[in-house]
Write a structure and sequence with these properties.
By secondary structure, this protein is mainly β. The chain contains 1 helix and 3 strands. The longest helix is centred in the first third of the chain and has 7 residues.
Length: 73
């Protein structure tokens, strides 16, 4: 992977989303969209996560190594 873009937003859930999460439609959710691409721009990973806003905790750690490392002799 050469690049990872993550977008985190708060919004009200859809009716289907509220039902799936077993929450009220008046409770905010956190929506995370993640798209990872390789050096040529091809998408190699995509994800959409929707979490209840009152019980979500997120930690993002992204380590991208675009240069090959050679072992030390």
């Amino acid at each position: 992977m050469a690049e990872v873009q993550e977008r985190l937003s708060a919004r009200l859930p859809t009716q289907e989303g509220a039902s799936a999460l077993r929450i009220s439609t008046s409770l905010a959710v956190l929506s995370l969209t993640r798209v990872a691409t390789d050096a040529t721009g091809i998408v190699v990973e995509a994800a959409l996560l929707v979490l209840p806003g009152d019980r979500a905790d997120a930690l993002f750690t992204t380590r991208l190594n675009t240069e090959e490392r050679t072992p030390s002799a």
